[in-house]
Design a protein that fits this description.
The complex is a heterodimer of chains A (about 120) and B (about 110).
Chain A: E1 3-7, E2 10-12, E3 18-25, E4 34-39, E5 45-51, E6 58-60, E7 68-73, E8 78-83, E9 92-98, E10 116-120
Parallel strand pairs in A: 2-10
Antiparallel strand pairs in A: 1-3, 3-8, 4-5, 4-9, 5-6, 7-8, 9-10
Chain B: E1 8-11, E2 17-22, E3 31-36, E4 43-46, E5 60-65, E6 68-73, E7 82-89, E8 97-99, E9 103-107
Parallel strand pairs in B: 1-9
Antiparallel strand pairs in B: 2-6, 3-4, 3-7, 5-6, 7-8, 7-9
Classes of the chains: A mainly beta (about 120), B mainly beta (about 110).
Chain lengths: ~120, ~110
C-alpha cells in the first residue's frame, strides 16, 4: 500500500520557521514527482510546491516563493518543506501527495497524506 | 492557467450531479478531480478526464469538451456530500499545479 505521512506541524509565531516532513512507503519514492498542497481553515485546496524525482525541476506558488523551500532525500524516502518567514495566511493543513514519474507527464495527486496542521499566531 | 468551479451544487438522493470546471480550451488539457470531506485527506476520484482509480464507483464519470470539464455523479448518495476540486497540471508554467476553487456538493 502506498502511504504518505506528514509531520512537523505545530504552533509558530509570525516571522519564524518550521520544517515539514513527509515519509513515503509502499512505492519507489525516487521515481516520482512529489507535491505539497495546503488548505487554510474554511478555504479551498491550494497548490504550494512540486519537485521532480531528481530535484531538477522545482516550482512554487507565488504566495510562498522566496520563503518556502522544497527538497527531497530519495535515500530516506522523505519530502521536505522548509517554511521561513511564516505569515498568518500560511496557517493551514499541509498535505504531501505523490505525482507521476515525469514532470512533463500529467501529474495527478494520488495518494495524499493525512496532513499536518501549521498554526501561525503570536 | 486558471480553472473555475461553481461554489455549490445541490442534488436530491438518487439524482445526477454535474460539477463543472471551466478553463480556456480546457479540452486540450487533462483534468483530474478530488473529493475532500471535512477532516479527511483528499481522494482522487477521476484522472485524465475520464479514468477512475481502483475503488472509485462507476457512478463517478467525467467528460471534457471545449472550455468545460465535467464530473458527473450518478445516483447520488448521502455519502457523496463533500467538496470537489478539479486540477490541471501545466508543466510548461512556473505554476504547474492549478487547482480550482472547489464545489460544495450538498445532498438534499
Amino acid at each position: 500500500e502506498e502511504l504518505l505521512v506528514e509531520s512537523g506541524g505545530g504552533l509558530v509565531q509570525p516571522g519564524r520557521s518550521l520544517r515539514l516532513s513527509c515519509a513515503a512507503s509502499g512505492f519507489m519514492f525516487e521515481e516520482f514527482v512529489m507535491h505539497w498542497v495546503r488548505q487554510a481553515p474554511g478555504k479551498g485546496l491550494e497548490w504550494v510546491s512540486s519537485i521532480s524525482s531528481d530535484s531538477n525541476f522545482i516550482a512554487y506558488a507565488d504566495s510562498v516563493r522566496g520563503r518556502f523551500t522544497i527538497s527531497r532525500d530519495n535515500g530516506k524516502k522523505s519530502l521536505i518543506l522548509q517554511m521561513n518567514s511564516l505569515r498568518a495566511e500560511d496557517m493551514a493543513f499541509y498535505f504531501c501527495a505523490k505525482g507521476s514519474k515525469s514532470w512533463y507527464h500529467n501529474n495527478w495527486f494520488d495518494p495524499w497524506g493525512q496532513g499536518t496542521l501549521v498554526t501561525v499566531s503570536s | 492557467y486558471v480553472v473555475t468551479q461553481p461554489p455549490s451544487v445541490s442534488v436530491a438522493p438518487g439524482q445526477t450531479a454535474r460539477l463543472t470546471c471551466g478553463g480556456r480550451n480546457i479540452d486540450g488539457r487533462s483534468v483530474h478531480w478530488y473529493q475532500k470531506r471535512p477532516g479527511q485527506a483528499p481522494v482522487l476520484v477521476l484522472y485524465d478526464d475520464t479514468d477512475r482509480p481502483s475503488g472509485i464507483p462507476e457512478r463517478f464519470s467525467g467528460s471534457n469538451s471545449g472550455n468545460t470539464a465535467t464530473l458527473t455523479i450518478s445516483r447520488v448518495e448521502a455519502g457523496d456530500e463533500a467538496d470537489y476540486y478539479c486540477h490541471v497540471w501545466d508543466s510548461s508554467s512556473d505554476h504547474p499545479g492549478v487547482i480550482g476553487g472547489g464545489t460544495k456538493l450538498t445532498v438534499l
